[in-house]
Structures are given as structure tokens and as C-alpha cells.
Amino acid sequence: MGPRLGRRDYSSDSPALARCLLGCVLVRALSDGTRLSGRIVETEAYCAPEDRASHAYNMHRSTRNESMYAAGGTAYVYFTYGMHHCMNAVCKDPGEPRAVLIRALEPIDGLDLMLRSRSGPRRRSPVRDRDLCSGPAKLCQALQIDRSLDGADMTLGDTLWIERGEPIDDARVRVTPRIGIDSAGEAWAGKPLRWVVFDSPHVSVRKGL
DNA sequence: GCACCGATCGCCT
DNA sequence: GGCGATCGGTGCT
């Protein structure tokens, strides 16, 4: 395991951080000490206040997205579609609501527990390794990330953080428009703000790579 | 009040 | 590969 990312690492803007996070390792430590982790292979940058797809568009602020306004290195975890959680790394300075959505991981530590966490009673077929963390809500389910971790300082504490990993060469990276934000207006929906390690089998959506 | 979601799954072609 | 159902909080009108 590499060194934990510190405040300075989160001081850059969201597009730069989104690229930088590829290859880094997201770590979730449970209260019993169990370590769940995975290498980040897909990210998206959100650029409020101008970005219509951002929850902080036009500096919108509420109890839901309050942690987007916190210091770089804060976790922003939100609940959506009535059943899913998604996790962002907040960046830049307090009051600047920039964030990077973590969209997919290559599982590293705790595969067995991830498998159990991802196997609900509704599911018919077993979860393949490549589907454990291949989506923003899947990885939250696998790593047991929910609203209780919203606002967590990832530069401190022992529940959630990001470690430096093997750098990913530009040759392995593709940049595409973001997923699922077609209604955000053409200008922002089409911007290349999604970073993908395109040769990884663990990415969420292959279309567009 | 009500439409809308930064998504996922099972089932269908 | 695409499509509809799912579920509930959020933010408009």
C-alpha cells in the first residue's frame, strides 16, 4: 500500500484530480479492522457552479450536498434512485463545490466480503469479479459506503481514504463524455470529463471507449 | 403535490 | 445490446 493522499493532493481542480486518481487505491476500513479496497479505474469530474450536471450547479446548497462545500479531501456520499449510494472526492478549497465521482474499481482487498455485500436476495446469478465494483453504486455497496460516511475527512480518520498506487500511463487512458447526464444541456453533457483505464475489465460502461 | 434523478438488475431481443 | 421496473429523497412548481 502506498502513502495516503493528503490535503495538497486534493487541492487541484476536479478534471486534474479525476485523471490523477486513476491507479490510486480507495480504501474502506470497517470498525472490526477489515480492509476493503480497490484500484480506481474510472472517474468523472464535476465543475460547479457552471456545470449543470453538478449537484452544486449555480452554487446550489442544501443538507444533501453540504459536504461539497467542505475542504478538499472530504467525501461527498449521496443517495439516489431510492436505493443507491454514490461517492465523490471533494477537491479545491472550502466554498468551491468541485468533486470527482468514483465510478469503478478493480477490487484488491476483501473480495469475499464484497461478494457477500453485493449478493442481495433478489439476485439470481452469482456476481462476477468484474461486476463487483463496475459502477458508482456497485462500489459503494461492495465497500459498505453510505450516507454515514458523507463528510468524512479522507486525509484523516480510519474509515475511508485514498492511497497512491501505480501511476497509469496516458496510453491506457481514454477521456469521454460523462455517463447518464444527457439532460444537463448539450454544452455540459458532451464535455469530455470522464476518465477511464480503457483496457481494464472493471470499468462500468464500455460504450464510447 | 409531483416529476425527476451522477443507477442497477433481470429479462428480452 | 436495449428496456422497463425498481425505490425514496430532493427540489422544483
Q: Can you describe this structure?
A:
- This protein has 209 residues and is an alpha+beta fold.
- Helices cover 12% and strands 28% of the residues.
- Strands 1, 2, 3, 4, 5, 6, 7 and 8 form an 8-stranded antiparallel β-sheet that branches.
- A hairpin with a 5-residue loop joins strand 1 (25-29) and strand 2.
- The longest helix is centred in the N-terminal third of the chain and has 8 residues, at 14-21.
- The relative contact order is 0.23.
- The structure holds a DNA duplex (13 and 13 nucleotides).
Write the layout of secondary structure elements.
Layout: H1 14-21, E1 25-29, E2 35-47, E3 75-80, E4 84-91, E5 98-109, H2 111-117, H3 136-142, E6 160-163, E7 173-177, H4 186-189, E8 192-197
Antiparallel strand pairs: 1-2, 1-6, 2-5, 2-8, 3-4, 4-5, 7-8
The structure holds a DNA duplex (13 and 13 nucleotides).
* Counted beta strands: 8
The amount of beta strand, in percent, is 25-35%
Q: State the end-to-end CA separation.
A: 29 Å
Helix content: 10-25%
Large-scale geometry: globular
Q: Summarize model confidence as the mean pLDDT.
A: 95
Which residues sit in consecutive blocks of at least 5 with pLDDT less than 50? none
- Give me the number of helical elements: 4
Structural class: alpha+beta
Oligomerization status of the protein chains: single chain
Q: Name the helix and strand elements from N-terminus to C-terminus, one letter apiece.
A: HEEEEEHHEEHE
What integer value in Å does the Rg equal? 16 Å
